């Protein structure tokens, strides 16, 4: 492919290497497909946040998302659950052997009210959630409560994995929400709402899509929670979930391990 | 829930996103299929074959014999099979290799998530569908209606059928298609008990028409929904199903005639797409012929013409199909789970050791061989188009996805009795369900 390019094109090729890595990852060569979803009020920066995460770029223009969208990124994990960006130059991470590849599908939703029925429908197909608000907007922070109840109604289970993200941390002079407030809210949701299933932490991060601060960390933390969740789901005794919430039509979705094989 | 509340441009934008999502889903489904296939293979390796006694004290995974006192094995918590110490993974809370692989696949395929989701949102359909998938389908259906001409009125069909039909037989044809299907199955059931000549005649006439009609109805509805269809064609059984199925295959060959009968008739009511000649012959499996003999095959992939070349060499020591002295064998090839294309050799006369030396070609892209199996079945071509099943060989084709020189050249494969239909995988099942609903809907 390289031979066909002229010298100038090779320059752009190298600059656009990340982009090309995105294109070539349309194969099944990964170990996990993890679907995460960003939600929150309109204008809190969900799209720019994801753009920063996947492409490491910042677009200050506000372009409202129409309904839904998604971005993809492939990360490799070491056995100790540390992740690093998957690029064409470094396809297997630094150590060979004990790595695994995660294909992330990051759903971006419209914050606008008029798309609500569409976006909330997509909640149920996501494995983890980035609940975002704008640190410079008290209203977007107050609405976290509403988003939380939307999640409980529409997500795949009552207590999905969530990371609370306060975005636009770089705009320190316009800040309206204090770190302490947000942390308390995260703790409250971690304990009160999900007390019936045991204590579950909702991590909180202050990020900036403009500078890139803590963007990776927030996503990786969520990914980590989801990865732990899947281990738990598979290892828990299969008898327990069946009588939990009165779901009767489970039929063939139940693990058949314990059933008679005839 | 649909996209009708959006403006035209917005809808196009969202649909574009959903189409991208579909691309990813196709890749993912392919990955999962491969993964589950590997798991199935791992299970099959350990499956007790009919040649072995089930009660024998061997490790359920590696088949090594277990001692009474020393290396006596222990029961795996997952599958309750007795496992030798070498086939365990983990220390205290160990699992056998298969149970461990099963757990691993459940995580890596995202099956865990589907199970969790089903607890809150019970699935009513036979497969999981994401919201995006659903929306895309709905919009496809809507656009489909405006483009495709209406399906022809039923009388066309009737003319078509009665033109060549025999008056005596015309009664079932006037019935609606559903009834036809029902009567069809009931005929078959009757036949399996009393091999009445007249009925058999009726059956073959019946059957002879069915596929033609089938083509007729599907052609119309294929146009743009067939993208959806082709993706579901490659669906794999869900993990629990797979697990159950392979548990069944632990007891391969022990199935009784009665079991076969039930699986067979349900297959018919589903509207099988296979050849009709074999429909009438499937009955004769119930005669309880034992299967003996071997089949010589050479399988090679030709990248130049992107064909799977199968050379049918010969058979030896076949059982004589008719009970009389004359056996007229031929070999039929399918690439499972898609039963649509079928190739046959010529019929050899009066021999139980026929030599064919015929090359049959399947036109198939190499990467599509993943998860596919070659079914080579030997049949006796009897009188009145009656055919008797003499045995079959199933060969997983995954190995031919790469250039492997070791795999070329002839091999002798022992013939096996027919497996229950469901062992050919969920894809065929889906296929069937899809088609029957198509059929009844017209």
Automatic annotation (TrEMBL), chain A:
Reactions catalysed: GTP + H2O = GDP + phosphate + H(+)
PANTHER family cross-referenced by the UniProt entry: LD44762P
InterPro entries: P-loop_NTPase, Rab27a/b, Small_GTP-bd, Small_GTPase, Small_GTPase_Rab
Membrane topology: Lipid-anchor
A GO term for molecular function: GTP binding
GO cellular component terms, A-Z: late endosome; membrane
Record EC number: 3.6.5.2
Gene3D superfamilies according to UniProt: P-loop containing nucleotide triphosphate hydrolases
Alphabetized NCBIfam families for the sequence: small_GTP (TIGR00231)
Protein name: small monomeric GTPase
One matching Pfam family: Ras
Highest taxon, organism lineage: Eukaryota
CDD domains: Rab27A (cd04127)
Region Disordered: start-end pairs: 236-262
Record family assignment: Belongs to the small GTPase superfamily. Rab family.
Subcellular location: Late endosome; Membrane
Alphabetized UniProt keyword annotations: Acetylation, Disulfide bond, Endosome, GTP-binding, Hydrolase, Lipoprotein, Membrane, Methylation, Nucleotide-binding, Prenylation
TrEMBL record, chain B:
Main localization of the protein described in the UniProt heading: membrane
GO cellular component, one term: plasma membrane
Entry's transmembrane regions: none
Topology of the protein relative to the lipid bilayer: Peripheral membrane protein
Provenance organism: Menidia menidia
Record-linked InterPro entries: C2_dom, C2_domain_sf, FYVE_2, Rab_BD, Znf_FYVE_PHD, Znf_RING/FYVE/PHD
Protein name: (Atlantic silverside) hypothetical protein
SUPFAM superfamilies xref list: C2 domain (Calcium/lipid-binding domain, CaLB), FYVE/PHD zinc finger
SMART domains in UniProt: C2
PROSITE patterns: C2, RABBD
Region of interest (Disordered), ranges: 244-276, 421-442
GO function term, MF aspect, one: small GTPase binding
A Pfam family the protein falls into: C2
Entry keyword set: Membrane, Repeat
Domain C2 span(s) in chain numbering: 291-413
Highest taxon of source: Eukaryota
GO biological process, one term: exocytosis
Localization per record: Membrane
Lineage: Eukaryota, Metazoa, Chordata, Craniata, Vertebrata
Domain RabBD per the UniProt entry, residue ranges: 1-116
